[in-house]
Write a structure and sequence with these properties.
Radius of gyration: 23 Å
Number of helices: 12
Order of helices and strands: EEHHEHHHHEEEHHEEHEEEEHHH
Low-confidence stretches: 44-62, 136-148, 161-174, 409-413
Shape: globular
Oligomer: single chain
Mean pLDDT: 78
Length: 413
């Protein structure tokens, strides 16, 4: 049966200057209509089945775009849709199917994508799927080991500036626990785990970004102000030419406000289990090992405990570690986490949690960092910084192939 009107599309958002696909679907409707449907669903405007929950619960992902991957003409559209799910999974895309009925199929396709079968065409995919169903092989994305980093090693590295993480590009996680969404006056309890990177003495990685605001986009009369997020070279232990200049501004009171605008924004990536969830999530990721994006305020509390000589427990130890309690209060109009703390009692991993580690593996946290810019890209970042500071608009012709502003749509379909 032919389906000439149907096409396969994928939704994506921009993270760290890369397209990140997170959903594959098929439709016979015009792209604009389909995109509007996703927008309405993401904003919770639909009252029927609880669809598109992932977008609705993750505010930062509500700005998303669509690529048309192919048109279905000769074969079953379901085969094409499943083929592209497998293709993107094998390429590392953090797909998150958003409809309840898709989760079982997604789990099966995830297992197929990890098989040794080379999936190059729709027909070959169908053969691989048949083999998988016949053998019911139990495969998983990641396998990890217990990286028993010592507390003494962490203290030694925190006391120095010699450590530089080993960065390699990957897609960001699709299961970040949004602790910032918990209600004021409540707490979330998490159990942190080691990094699966033997070269990292910590159980976290640090990411530094710089925001470059622009007055608009060159060539568009009514363009709104836009922001480009670029990586700070201090993420890799190197001198950042932008911060070198910004540091001088702090010496001039008239430029201090401008200096703070361009100062690096720190975040710290951890992984672990959520043990007490005040959000009461209706749907949790299949892999219970969550990622945590921790602010400098909370990180300072974690770090200060680790360098305290009276703190003699390695908190990520499987059998003798500790929980960390994120307490959300308020200070004026802003959220405050200053009362967050390690718990006092040793809290070993449960058998279920250990099994989850065996089945899913631990993450190499450095894979969630942006790619380190080369010399050409560093020069472009400096030029963009100077134009931003001068109040110039974003020049898509000059920079569009390198660094994109937040929300910039690049598909041409």
């Amino acid at each position: 049966m032919s389906h000439p009107q149907e096409f396969i599309y994928a939704l994506f958002h921009h993270v760290d200057f890369k397209k990140v696909y997170f959903y594959v679907g098929r439709s016979a409707r015009a792209k604009g209509i389909r995109h509007d449907e996703h927008i309405h669903a993401a904003n919770g405007e639909r009252k029927q089945e609880d669809v598109y929950k992932y977008i609705r619960e993750h505010v930062a992902y509500r700005i998303f775009f669509e690529d048309v991957l192919c048109y279905c003409k000769d074969e079953n559209p379901n085969d094409y849709e499943d083929f592209y799910v497998v293709k993107l999974l094998r390429e590392g895309a953090p797909l998150q199917n958003m409809k309840k009925g898709d989760m079982k199929k997604l789990a099966e396709l995830t297992a197929i994508s990890n098989s040794t079968c080379k999936i190059a065409t729709v027909s070959e995919f169908k053969v691989a799927r048949a083999k998988h169903r016949a053998t019911q092989r139990d495969t998983h994305f990641l396998k990890g080991t217990n990286m028993a980093t010592s507390l003494a090693a962490i203290r030694a590295k925190l006391a120095s500036t010699a450590y530089t993480p080993n960065i390699k590009q990957s897609y960001p996680p699709n299961a970040i626990y949004p602790h910032w969404l918990i209600e004021t006056g409540t707490s979330a309890t998490i159990r942190l785990l080691p990094d699966n990177n033997a070269d990292n003495p910590y159980f976290w990685v640090e990411r530094n970004l710089i925001n470059l605001p622009f007055s608009g986009v060159k060539g568009y009369t009514n363009s709104r102000p836009v922001v480009v997020k670029i990586p700070c070279m201090e993420t890799w232990g190197e001198t950042c030419p932008i911060l070198t200049e910004v540091r001088k501004w702090f010496k001039d009171p008239a430029k201090e406000a401008e200096a703070r605008k361009y100062w690096k924004k720190r975040a710290y990536f951890f992984q672990g289990f959520v043990r007490n969830d005040p959000l009461s999530e209706n749907t949790s990721p299949e892999n219970p090992i969550r990622r945590f994006v921790i602010s400098p305020q909370i990180f300072g509390l974690i770090k200060n405990a680790l360098i305290d000589p009276d703190f003699d427990i390695m908190p990520t130890d499987y059998d003798a570690g500790l929980d960390f309690r994120i307490n959300k209060t308020s200070k004026g109009e802003f959220a405050d986490y200053s009362t967050s703390t390690w718990t006092r009692r040793v809290s070993p991993l449960t058998d279920t949690e250990k099994l989850a580690i065996d089945e899913n593996g631990l993450f190499d946290l450095s894979s969630f960092l942006p790619t380190q810019p080369n010399a050409e890209e560093i020069g472009i970042m400096v030029d963009m910084f100077h134009d931003s500071a001068a109040g110039m608009p974003y020049d898509e012709d000059k920079w569009g192939d390198y660094f994109k502003y937040v929300g910039m749509e690049t598909d041409k379909f």
